[in-house]
Amino acid sequence: MNVKEQRILHLIQExxxxxxxxxxxxxxxxxxxxxxxxxxxxxxxKLVGRAYIxxxxxxxxxxGGANVDRKAKVIGSAQFGTSxxxxxxxxxxxxxxxxxxxxxxxxxxxxxxxxxGDDVEGEWLLEKSKPYIDMSLIYKVPNSNTGDYTAVINxxxxxxxxxxxxxxxxxxxxxHVQKRWGRIAGSDLILMDxxxxxxxxxxxxxxSYIKNIPVCIASVSSPKIxxxxxxxxGVTWLILNRDEAETLTGxxxxxxxxxxxxxxxxxxxxxxxxxxxxxxxxxxxxxxxGEAKHIHPPKIHVKDVTGAGDSLIAGIVYATLLGEDIQxxxxxxxxxxxxxxQTNETVHSGLNKKMLHENYITYFEGEDQHET
Length: 372
What we know:
This protein has helices at 3-14, 20-27, 31-43, 95-105, 120-129, 174-184, 198-210, 222-225, 242-249, 257-267, 308-321, 326-341, 353-364, and strands spanning 59-63, 67-74, 86-93, 109-113, 115-117, 139-141, 147-153, 159-165, 189-193, 215-218, 237-241, 273-277, 283-287, 292-295.
C-alpha cells in the first residue's frame, strides 16, 4: 500500500462509518480521488463489501519465554570489580511474551504459550500480561521458579551484561504444544523464540507447515540460535542479530558485502525471509525471491536498548498480517523499535496503531536515503 492508502485505511479503522467526503476533507483530496483509493483497497482485500467492513481479525500465537525482567541502570560510568550505584526497574519480560504484548497493544488478537512457576512472580506476570495477551495457553509448573532476566545498562543506554535464569522453559515438551494444538492450529501466524528446546521448535515448524501456517522465529542469543533445525522448510521469517547470524552461518559480518552472503546461506535451509538486525546500522533483509536491501535507521536519542528487538519483530509481524511487502514491514518494525529505544520501558506503554502509523510516516515516508 502507498502512504495515502495507509492513511485512509487507518482512518477507516478508527471510524468504519466515516464518509468519503469526510476522508477527502481530512486528507485534503477530492472525493473522486478518495473513491479511487477505496476501490483499490477493496480490490486488495483491505476492505470487504459495503460500509467499509474490515477483514476478519488475524490471530497470532507466540510460543517461548515469559519471565520477570529486572533492569539496573548504572549511575555514571560502570566499574567492574566493585559496587556500582544504580536505579532499578521491574517489569514483565521474555522475548515471546514481549512480542505478544507489543502485538496486543497494536490491537492484534494474540495468545501466548509458555511455562511459568507456580509462584508469586508467575501470578504477577500473568496478571500484568492479561490486558494485552490471551494467557489461557500458559502452563504453571509446580516446584519451579518463574524465569528471571536481569540486565545491567550503562549511562548511554547500552547493555553491559545480562543475566538470564530461564531453566523453566527447558521443561517445555512437544506434548505441551500437542495438548494446545487444537487452539494453536487456528492461528494466522505462529511465532517462536529460541528459548524453546530444539525438538519443540522442529515439531511446531513441521505441524505448521502441514497446516500452511506461517512461522516466524525470533532468535534470543548466539548460544541458542543453533537450536533451529538444519531443515527449516516451513519457516516464513527468521529474525536475528549480527552476532547470531555469524554464529549460525560462520560468515563474519564486518563487511557489508557479507550480509547478503550470510542471508542467502540461511535461505538455503528453507527459510523464506531473513532479517539481520545491525544495531545502529539498521537492518538487512533478503528473501528467497531474490530481494535484498539494507535499511538504515532514523537518527534518535537512545535511552535504553532493552526490548527494542522484540518491538521490531512485533512491528514486522503486524505489518505482514496487514498484507504489506517485506520492505514496508521492515520499516514498520523499525518504527516500532524506535519508540521503544526512546523509553526506559521494555514494552512502550504508549504504543498503539495510530502512534506506530505516525512514526512510520515521520521516519520513512519518502525517505529514500534510509535504503541502500
